[in-house]
Amino acid sequence: MTDVYVAGIDMIRFGRYPGKTPADLGAQATLLALDDAGLGIGDVQAVYCSNLFQASGLMGQQILRLIGQTGVPVTNVSNACASGATAFRDAWIAIKAGLYDVVLAVGTEQVPKGMLPVGGAMGAEPEGVMGSHAMPAVFAEAGMVHANKYGTSFEQFARVSVKNHHHSTMNPKAMHQVETPLEQVLASEMIAYPNTKLMCSVNTDGAAAAILVSEKKARELGMGRMVKVRASALASDPYEPRSPTLFDANTPTRLAARWAYEMAGLGPQDVNLVELHDCFATAEILHYENLGLCGEGEAGQLIDSGATALGGRIPVNVSGGLLSKGHPIGATGIANIYEIAQHLRGEAGARQVQGARIGLTHVLGWGTAVGVHILEKAA
After folding, report:
1. Share of the chain above pLDDT 70, in %
2. Is 101 exposed, middle or buried (0-12, 13-18, 19+ CB in 10 A)?
3. Which ranges constitute the DSSP H helices of the chain?
């Protein structure tokens, strides 16, 4: 079975694009990724396209109408916040299966302003009766469970936002590129305690694309800038006797991380940097432990130590993360992989993690789908 490599990958700067369509954004990202790979749309043998809010619109086909209709199979993917990671994984599977040598994974989104709607429940509506499935409430509750169990403080949650906003000042493709000192984060509008407005991810438009190739094609193109996909894992909720509204924020991530580490033959100690799903500051704290970056109950001390900042032992969300780079849902998973690829290639500029050879990406789509990928510098 062939290994799979990322030959080309890119993203547009995340922001608001009122004069564009999601297909326009996806087409732009695809052309950037094709240029990065040194290939054209005529070389692509299959397309996997991720999008959430316009999922019924055959987005992949819309993108090809803009940049070249070659008749290749197109599969459109919608898997909540894990949509981009799912499209990437499906492209990886297609090459692993031996069907193709060159596959495009592209994610694109234009996200509405304000609090995002959550998919409808079957039967009686549990909202307000058995808790809330509004995302700020869900991750506030999950953070408070951690705080009650381990003593994690309001300030420790807030330091995640300070760190990620600082990282984004070095990322020209982040939506926001401004420092947010601790006092400012703590004093910003309270959304759902302990998450203030600056501790919530940024709704934005965006697109990202990746060109995946077989080992045969990678050798033909040259291995110099190739990034190897060491592992791809996707998990959903295992049954647990919990509230049907408040899904478990932790178990699916632990499951996907365990499968990915096993597939890669690696452990958390081998990873040089991580892009994880910081949809809220509380979520990043939880995922330090879920991904094995520290022991149980140690996440608060980990953020205090500076280990997850650029220059630390295990830098996390050097791109600025969802909190500052932005969170265009269908594009987020591939944008996370773009960030890791930049570091493995030594092309991340001012935010470069020196000597990076192994990187991990993680996304969590509520309801639940969790994608974890482990990537390795190929040459």
Report:
1. 94
2. middle
3. 22-37, 59-67, 83-96, 135-150, 154-168, 182-187, 215-221, 251-264, 281-290, 299-305, 321-324, 329-344
Give the three-state DSSP class for 103.
strand
Active-site residue identified among 49, 81, 279, 294 = 81
Q: Return the closest-CA partner of residue 157 out of 196, 201, 202.
A: 196
Phi, psi for 105 (deg, rounded to 5): -115, 125
Q: What angle do CA 60, 63, 64 make, to 5 degrees?
A: 90
Regions of the chain short of the pLDDT cut 50: none
pLDDT for the residue 371: 98
Active-site annotation holder among 167, 176, 287, 327 = 327
The answer to whether 323 and 202 are in contact (CB under 8 A) is yes
DSSP 8-class letter at 115: S
Rounded distance, CA 11 to CA 209, Å? 6
Catalytic residue at 327? yes
Q: How much of the chain is helix, strand and coil, in % rounded to 5?
A: 40, 20, 40
User: Is 81 annotated as catalytic?
Assistant: yes
Q: Could you read off the pLDDT of 264-284 as tens digits, one per residue?
A: 999 999 999 999 999 999 999
DSSP annotation of 377 reads: E
Is the link from the previous residue into 194 a cis peptide, with omega within 30 of 0?
yes
CB count in 10 Å sphere of residue 348: 22
* Strands 4-11 vs 227-235: parallel, antiparallel or unpaired: antiparallel
pLDDT at residue 129, rounded to an integer: 60
